Amino acid sequence: MIQSLLIANRGEIACRIIRTARAMGIRTIAVYSDADAQALHVRQADEAVHIGPSPARESYLVGERIIAAANSTDAAAIHPGYGFLSENADFAQAVLDAGLIWVGPHPDSIRAMGLKDAAKARMIAAGVPVTPGYLGEDQSPDRLQQEADAIGYPVLIKAVAGGGGKGMRRVDAAQQFAEMLQSCKREAASSFGDDRVLIEKYILSPRHIEVQVFGDSHGNVVHLFERDCSLQRRHQKVIEEAPAPGMTEYTRNIVCAAAVRAAKAVDYVGAGTIEFIADGSLGHIHPDRIWFMEMNTRLQVEHPVTEEITGVDLVEWQLRVASGEPLPKTQDELRINGHAIEARLYAEDPAKGFLPSTGKLEQFLLDGSVRIDKGVYQGAAISPFYDPMIAKMISHASDREEARERLSWALNESIIWPVRTNAGFLIRCLEQSDFIAGQMDTGLIAREGEALIPPLMPPDHELEAVAETYSRQSLAGFRLNAPLRREMVLAVNGQPVPVRMSIHDYVDQRRLAGSQDAPASLWLTDGGQTWQVQPVRTVQAGAAAASDGAILSPMPGRITAVEIVPGDTVTKGQRLVTLEAMKMEHSLIAPFDGVVAELNAEPGAQVSEGTLLVRIERLED
Question: N or C: which end of the chain has fewer CB within 10 A?
Answer without folding.
Answer: C
